[in-house]
Design brief:
mainly alpha; elongated
Amino acid sequence: MPDLDLVLAILHHLFIFALFGVLSAEVVSVRRRMDAAAVGRIQLIDNWYGVLALLILIVGFCRAIFAAKGWEYYAHNAFFWAKIATFVVIAVLSIPPTVAFMRWRRENTSPTDAAVAGVRLYLWIQVALFPLLPAFAAAMARGYGVF
């Protein structure tokens, strides 16, 4: 049976890849002239975004606390905290699109081109920040950033 460290690492990576897939699906799906059915599908996709983000946090902190390196390794690493901060920034940037999707669905109307452009900007900023997560993780795993 695989050890806890391996299982948590696999889950953490799978959830992160899935999160990026969901974010990519949102970028592709949010476009001008969406109808109410498209908005409903996007809101469902966005729900998965939230679920996956929560799973990443749970598994990630379980990994940091209970896995091989332990909390002391991560607590004193600048790249760990940079990764957490980047994840929080991405999470905060995901709030306006989520609110927009909920509003569009509640109003049961097609969003304006300006509203779509605003949401797409938030999505693209998240996409642009995402590569920092594996970069910080790789640096952290190799012992860089210890203080």
